[in-house]
User: Fold these one by one.
Assistant:
Number 1:
Amino acid sequence: PKGGLSTGGDGLEITNTARSDFKKIAERVAKIAPGADVIGVDILARDHTNVLSGDTYIVIEANTRPGLSGHQFPDFGEPNNIMRVLARYCVKEIRKGNFALKSALFPAKTSQSSSGLLLANDVSERTTLVFGGDTSLGDSYIARMDRPEITQRMISAPESFFEKLMPIVSDKDHFALNFEGVLGSGVADPWNGKKKYLGQEDPERSVSVLKAIGVDSVSVANNHTMDFGAEHLLQTMKHFNQAGISTFGAGQNRIHSSLPLTLPTDIGNIHILGGFEYRRSYNEDFRYYSSGSRPGTQRFRQSSHNQLADKIRQLRKSDPNSFIIAFPHWGGTQNYTWANEKMFVLNTSFLKAGADLVLGHGSHMMQQCWVEDRDTTIFSLGNFVFNSPGRYKKLKAPPYSMVARLDLQSTEGRWATRLRLYPIVSDNIATNFFPRPVNEQEANDVYGILERQGQRIFSREFSLGQDHRGYFIERTGPVSRRCNTLR
């Protein structure tokens, strides 16, 4: 029988993970048919991740009208907006004069190319990414508190926990968070009390609220998404995916969990990689990490040679012009502290492997803002909205976290960047569970703390400013040596 999407097959989107060998084969096939601007090449292979040889693949056919819905709406894998790629390709070809369009189709008063099509400037459109740190509505935490008014807010107005942060996260192209919890109600503890602080949330409420505030993706590589075992991790991912929120950093097996979240843009691909540092007890006691056939989170060793750096290196080699962001959950079991020595070693490995930016999380508070060989690291964004009482005062930790806004654009054939970090007060005891942007005095306090904890060059590499969203700390140059500064 003939197998394919049209006959009931399941589609797995692998465009961004397939070996470059396959792509080169498709390019060679496409060149055989000059004049055909779009061709779909069907290749049957034993394994798209292994080295090619004469008997491991075969080219079946080439189509001038390929089916694209499998890429746009795959059954498995991250959707790939092929329609947008094709549209932008057409615009570029029109600029070159390769397509002839009737100028009568366009108003005479517009600025047109020689073909008659209204064209944008040679500078690409700006893409804005927003990143928040540890996030949980915290049903299980709130249930343990004697705070009936907070419980009532959770029931009647769960969006109220986010409302004061909305000016910072609005107006964006993509919004990513680190989600720390399991979507499920009435799930029994599979560890018989061995693991503390199990995070369980109402699926419908949490997904609905995150969707309402504009969240586009969540990392599920952290120390809470496997709190109730592999089955409930996969169920959590399913709840998000069905609502249109992408997940990354965990999956059905090691290959799936290592896949980046890839965002195609007119500039190039943006790859975001999630991972949870390896902790022996989490592996031996809770089987947290994925393997060849076991679901779990993507892990990385706490050493200079680690899986996340290896994946970054592979991406840099296969997609050299992409923008790569590492989004690790790290810092060890002691929260509310500054970045430790192992994190510095890991960070160097990520940057040397080819990451443009490292945005970490895991400490529940902001951590150092760092520049290494002109590359930028924010060791921890801290919390976004995390509904537990917290231990800031008890552990004498600064009550602040940060939200990152990254603007990307292409200038002179390179990525151009602007990174602004908006400090927020994340101590729920201080804010009565209304995390909010900092005021002027607090903004100066944040900058002073980061300056004291940071490098001697901190004040040269990061400045304090204010815009209509609030106070921010801005990287004064490009975030990466591979980038220009966005003006």
Number 2:
Amino acid sequence: MVIRLISQIISEIVLTILYPILSISLQTFQKINIIEEKDQKGKTIIIVERWLSLNIRHLYWRRYLIKKGYRVHLINFPLWHKDFKDSSLTLSQFMKDKKITDGTLVGISSGAITCLLYLEELGGWDRIDKFISIGAPFKGTWMMLFLSFIKSGRELLPGSDLTNKIASLNLNQPEKTICIKAEFDEMVPFGSILDGAKKVVIPIFGHNNLHLRHRETYQIIAREA
């Protein structure tokens, strides 16, 4: 048990350092990345992330879900790219363009904020069967102090106008919503669960481990979608 915890802590530290470095070195952090699935048949899953750039590890999990029989789109809205309202509008247009009417929307970390705004403010509930959030900072995260020089970073600070608005929401479709969180999340230690939603706590240490390394996270998505 102790060895497993130490391994998870080391993994979390490595992922936290490596991800921003790769994003900057590959210079992929300034544009929206959309990886569409055009040929695969089956029910649609739309994975939305919002960080520095598209994380290549999510390509592995996308392929995992495709092998499970799903048609999977993966979208990254970089935090540098405008604000959360703009990303929700872009997501809405994507859903309309692809004529998706019965998909499962998966929001990874701050990508879940984009998904929630789309669902609650832009009529997105009519186009999805289920919403799954993973380690979502619905009440903000103090980690965004490091990115407070950009608008979307400031929007994710606890007590911001955006996080206050989310706190005041009465979720329209709680029965369609599943919130997944790590047992200990150093980046989002609180506020990952929406009132009325199904709560799933995975016994793992680390925000990045939750959405980048842990197979159970994606087994839950495959089962619930």
Number 3:
Amino acid sequence: MRNGIVVCIGEGRYKNIGDYVQSVAAAQFSGQAPALVERERLSDYSGEPVKLVMNGWFMFHPEKFPPAAQIVPLFVSFHVRPKAEAAFFTPATTAYLKAHEPIGCRSRDMVEMLARHGICGEFSSCLTLTLGATFRHRSDAGRPVFVDPWFVRPSRKKGWWR
């Protein structure tokens, strides 16, 4: 069975480099050529069976959860955005998560959210904290630079908040 990682292409102007960094963190542990599974279409996945690290921030489209049957999940660093809680925790989603307990959670708040729905969660922290094992900064390499390719350049005409 192939290993996989969750990716998020983004929608329209909703793109986040944090989603990419979450995928990079999972990729460290997935081996060669992992299957890439779109986070916002997990229920639509129709590829070969895949063991999928379920880390990151879930989701703009909670109706696309639970994942397709071909996905064997490993829940670590899992997080549901608080505004999506009511829409996310349907009877089907709750049953799915209960079947895969304990759920590794990115924060203690997420453990509490799961508990409100009768699901056992454990604090696993954020998978991005493992990036130092693979990616290291050399102190002699000069100043670090952060580049966010999804940033829309603001203008006086549009304002900084758009």
Number 4:
Amino acid sequence: FPGRISVMSENVRSMVEIIRYVAGQGHRRIAFIHGEERGFVTQERIAGFYKGCMEMGIRTPEEYIVKGKYHQPKESGLATRMLLSLPTPPTCILYPDDYSYLGGLSEIEKHGLSIPQDISAVGYDGIHLSTLLRPKLTTYRQDAEKIGREAVVKLIEQIEQPGKNQDEHIIIKGELQLGDTVKRVAE
């Protein structure tokens, strides 16, 4: 929100990094199931998705960009079902978060497909669960601990210095956590 302090991940850059990696593995048909459209985070991630695709020379059909909800596996499962039913389905699906990936995984398995042999997938957040899944999920790991720490510092500053500038946006760098859910393809 304007006039407020925010502490968040590099949503645009992170999506560009994901697209570069996936495209580097040969994927050109990349779909993105995103979170709620009204949110600032979602708008940044969508912008990052398109920026990454443009940089890599990837033209993305409109039907490859699907609305979902954060932390709602069922929504992502339904979106995955729709993507798999397309005449030319994607070779890789990006999920709005690691929990939502679970809904996509379930739908992919219902179709008799497997990750990464038949379709590749990438999550977002880098929660501990992503390292326990098999195959291990490729995801963008936000530094949630650092984001939380910085938010607490800013909150304490606001309590102790109520007149201090409240229009500050702090971006915390994350990193792509490579797993086993993105297969190299030749398209």
